[in-house]
Design a protein that fits this description.
The chain is α/β, with parallel strands linked by helices. 28% of the residues lie in helices and 25% in strands. The chain is built from ten helices and 17 strands. The relative contact order is 0.14.
Length: 449
Amino acid sequence: MDKKYQIFISSTYKDLIDERKAVQEAILFMYHFPVGMELFSAAGTNQWEIIKSTLDNTDYYVLIIGKKYGTVIPDGYEDAGISYTEKEYNYAKAKNIPVLAFIIDNNVPLSEDKFESDSVKREKLQAFIKRVQDNQMVEWWDKKENLVNKVITALNKEFTRSPQIGWIRGNSQSEIQEHKHNNNNNRKPLFEVSLRVDKEDNSKNKLYQNSKNGFDNENGGITIKKKIVKKEIPQKFTQKLSLPDVPPKLRKYVTEESIHEYNNNLPNERTVKNFSDKMMWYEIINNCGVPVYFYIDNIGTLKATNVNIKLKFPKELCVYNIEDAAAINMPTVDFMPENPIVKAQEKSEIPYNVFSSNIFSQPRMEPICSTIDYRNLADLDNFHKAKVIDNNSAEGIFPSIMHTKGDYLDGIYIVPLKEGKYQVKCYLICEEIEEEQECIIDVIVENIA
């Protein structure tokens, strides 16, 4: 089920109007909802109440800071003396909305009208920037294209780290019930293994697999339901242009030489294939994977010490450390020559809809809305990070597990490559168990496409 997020774009307006438009278009290409001051009409309703209501329904807050502080709230109003942008930021922080901040680099050359001329406002701007930097990580940008790339990357990572409620189509009761179930479920799929340590003679102690408890299918295993699809790479990466492709109003700006140069500099098949492979793997990791954890339960009467667990996955189930998977960025399209029709349109300043033409727009790949999910582990007794050895094995070490207690091995991200039924082999040993013991956990992968 697709989930769409509402993303609030906060900044000063006139000096950053082009940057705001570019970020809005990027978010639309991600199939999410950008909102901001452009959508607030000058109605009789109190403007701040409209903004506040919009923020209350916002999933992520994007703050873009340039060289201007913006309009200051006048005396006699709440929060007088600070800018509306800073007030929006304060409210987003107070509501615990995830904030992504992007600050212009100090060395960027700008026209005079884009700098803050008021000395008092300049001081307020610097104080605001320092407070933003103190409160969260920030990204620095120097031009519009650079800003857009950083916003896309940061949003994808934030979708991963902090998934929000979002919006879903409400055209079926089953979808709504599924959404409620997913929001109420605060735990990842669970693999559970029990060991019993209650004998002085370590040859008597043994490993148990809980055949049903903690599992979600009748075979005593985990069922992973994912849409496993492969994405076609657009052919327009290699699509050549000709003069008839140029709209009549732009033909005086486009020459045969510029079209010839564009066609000669199109990427070769090897470059496109390399990009296609990277994009395919990026999509598989983000769109098909699922975070899991393992629970090791000591059901005996004595403490288990130096507990070592090794996990072997079949080749159809790739394994990642969850932070490594979340850090994988979408491949960038940096090999395309400048489209002479796009360049002509910029010169002419003739408005057009970027969605209405396949020729105007450069090939774009919308980012995948990542399903990598850091769950809240505050309710767990304890957890340890697994060490991923390679794409098909991982291990964990516990100094001790008290009797009648358990411990969690976390940080594993499974990427199923195709549907089917598989087995994960679990090897466990501790000081109190004489020989390494093995159990099998079933994993069923279902393709929901």
